[in-house]
Design a protein that fits this description.
390 residues; alpha+beta; 4-stranded mixed beta sheet; 4-stranded antiparallel beta sheet
Length: 390
């Protein structure tokens, strides 16, 4: 039996424009991203040229206002673009999600003047962003962050270190949460900091088990002076802005997770239908057929969950609980499906000659970033049962 070529996902898209957009993304993924993914990940190469191409083609500002260089696309469409990109290479899909997250504060809470001045370059002018919330001593407990911004006339002076920053050292701008007042969430303010500002530097990238092409690094702010015109929202509003951004960002992670899982399933199906043992394809054996069926079912369930949350968001309805559910389910699914894909390939799955092992290594981080899956369970439980008693 010949190898079965993977079939494109049959997507339910709301408009002809969205269908054309997915066709464009698939073409870029097939010709510009996927062919170099394995080699560049192994070498730790960050594909800045790909992000330049995505910016030029309008794919870095999809869910934002076209008045400022966005594409006015609903999240339902934007997330399916992310899924396609992540299936080709997670470094790219996750990178677009992080850039969208970094642009969210200004696009949603910035003044009209700020949006006119900065958003066109951020959304379609070739710039790449990073989101700076976590610190060496504040990860899940983000409200305890220590990076401080002190008012000095018409400027703010920012000092501190951010940790686990995707695009740290390669970004053109950082959306930074810094303490401007009291301890706790009410004393945090958001700032838009250019990467070339005096006092901004990045440490060497972390050495990671996966996503080696996506730099993750500490970013240091050593008395970085930024004008008050780069403060986003009101003083003390930063933590609320951060949480609002993360609700949307978690949907991006969910979509990326399903993209990786889909790529792993496609690899497993292609291998199983072409690999002969005992005189017939291993896909003929019931135990393996059932494994593939379970993988496909988990992926479809995850896709339906993140799209349902996206449609709530697009309708202006509350979606935080559903976003947490989607992030939890989709990333756990990615871990399970990629592990099963390695098993389907057997010994070959454990080698770098096939992409299954890379998918498995990459899937793990998705259970951690933008709120661990334990945090997602806490968020969901609070929606169901209220806050924990003290």
């Amino acid at each position: 039996m010949p190898d079965r070529a993977p079939q494109p996902v049959d997507r339910q898209l709301p408009t002809d424009e969205a269908r054309d957009l997915i066709s464009l993304v698939r073409d870029i993924a097939q010709h510009e991203i996927a062919p170099k993914a394995a080699e560049e990940e192994d070498a730790g190469h960050f594909p800045r040229e790909v992000f330049t191409l995505l910016s030029r083609t309008g794919l870095l500002g999809l869910p934002y206002d076209s008045e400022y260089g966005g594409a006015d696309q609903p999240y339902e469409v934007y997330l399916q673009v992310l899924e396609e990109l992540a299936a080709a290479r997670l470094t790219v899909g996750l990178g677009v999600s992080v850039h969208t997250l970094a642009s969210y504060a200004l696009a949603t809470y910035g003044s009209k003047e700020q949006q006119v001045e900065h958003l066109p370059a951020m959304l379609g002018g070739g710039l790449l962003g990073a989101y700076c919330l976590s610190e060496p001593s504040s990860g899940s407990d983000a409200a305890s962050l220590r990076t401080r911004a002190v008012r000095d006339g018409d400027d703010w002076v920012i000092t501190g270190t951010k940790a686990w920053i995707t695009h740290g050292g390669v970004a053109d701008f950082y959306t930074v949460m810094a303490r401007t007042g009291e301890e706790g969430p009410r004393g945090i303010t958001a700032f838009l900091v250019p990467a070339d500002a005096d006092g901004v530097s990045a440490a060497a990238p972390e050495k990671k088990m996966g996503m080696k092409g996506s730099p993750t690094a500490q970013v240091h702010f050593d008395a970085v002076r930024v004008p008050d015109a780069r403060r986003i929202g009101d003083e003390g509003q930063g933590f609320a802005i951060a949480l609002s951004a993360l609700d949307s960002g978690r949907l991006g992670i969910a979509a990326c997770a399903i993209g990786v899982a889909q790529a792993a399933l496609d690899e497993a199906v292609g291998y199983a239908t072409g690999r002969l043992q005992f005189g017939r394809p291993i896909a003929d054996f019931q135990g393996l057929r059932f494994m593939l069926a379970d993988m496909a079912t988990q992926i479809e369930a995850g896709r339906a969950l993140y799209l349902a949350a996206a449609r709530l968001r697009d309708a202006g309805r509350p979606f935080a609980k559903q976003a947490a559910m989607a992030k939890l389910h989709c990333t756990d699914t990615a871990m399970k499906v990629t592990t099963d894909a390695v098993q389907v390939l057997g010994g070959y799955g454990y080698t770098a000659d096939f992409p299954a092992e890379r998918y498995m290594r990459e899937a793990k981080v998705l259970q951690i970033v933008e709120g661990t899956n334990q945090i997602q369970r806490m968020v969901i439980a609070r929606h169901l049962a209220g806050p924990e008693t003290r």
